[in-house]
Amino acid sequence: MSRALAxxxxxxxxxxxxxxxxxIFSLVDLERGRNVLASAAFSPEDTANGxxxxxxxxxxxxxxxxFIGPNVGAPCSVAGDEHAFHGRASTxxxxxxxxxxxxxxxxxxxxGLSFRRRIAVDDEGVHVELExxxxxGPAPLLVAEHLAFGVELLDPEVTVExxxxxxxxxxxxGPVAPPADAPAWPRALLLDGSVDDVERFPEAGPGRLxxxxxxxxxxxxxxxPARSLAYEITWDDTSWLNNVWLWREEHGAGGPWRERxxxxxxxxxxxxxxxxxxxxxxxxxxxxxxxxxxASYAMSLRAVAP
Length: 306
Description:
Blueprint: E1 5-8, E2 12-17, E3 23-29, E4 34-35, H1 54-59, E5 65-68, E6 76-78, E7 81-83, E8 95-99, E9 103-110, E10 113-121, E11 125-134, E12 139-141, E13 144-149, H2 151-154, E14 159-169, E15 187-189, E16 195-197, E17 207-224, E18 229-235, E19 243-250, E20 262-269, H3 277-282, E21 287-289, E22 294-303
Antiparallel strand pairs: 1-2, 2-3, 3-4, 5-13, 6-7, 8-9, 9-10, 10-11, 11-22, 12-21, 13-20, 14-17, 15-16, 17-18, 17-19, 18-22, 19-20
């Protein structure tokens, strides 16, 4: 089985692991001497390929950047096919099609779908291309890109910029769809019914979970003004990745997290909720690929002027 791969330019060094979802588990900005992505606040466990649940997924979590699919959110069954939390592709081994010092191409097959992922590093940042293809079809799917920033970007404060017309807080009970009175970024409708500015995310408190829906441009800028650091996530298909989940966790979650995690997760996603593929199929919100049909997008994480 393939070992972890190292990709580097003169500015960035990335490490990815085909054995665990093809995730980018480390990204260092060599010019600034900073870890761009978060690391887990605990020693992650090896994740069995057959696990379905949230707890198992978290116990194997290493921070970094994961591809999520072909399910997003809760485990579920679709036409008798069992889907894991955040999809088996996020933790299963991927095959290495090719690898060099700056680029790797990896593939995974499951649930009637084939995924091909190209990851490249240059002096601007990291660039990912994802292609999904239905093998026998029709094949429903959801996807997300799960990027976690850690303390080197969050401390002493972090700001987030984007363009979205419906922004709201959610929890275990939803809401499932964007509320009619949800404002545009940088304001958000909170669970208590109040509206607040959220571009500093948040200034106090253990955490917050937001959805920014009806994304108008595939761009999220995350900056640490005090450290003169800024990075920008961009993607080219807002018809598919039309929502952004934002989760700030500050030493509040127990279990494997041990109340030690400091994370800002930015997650462009197919849907605004974590109910899973079965609910998305029922609601008519899953993408369905017909036999042989392909769908793709490109995403980058770049250093930008602070």
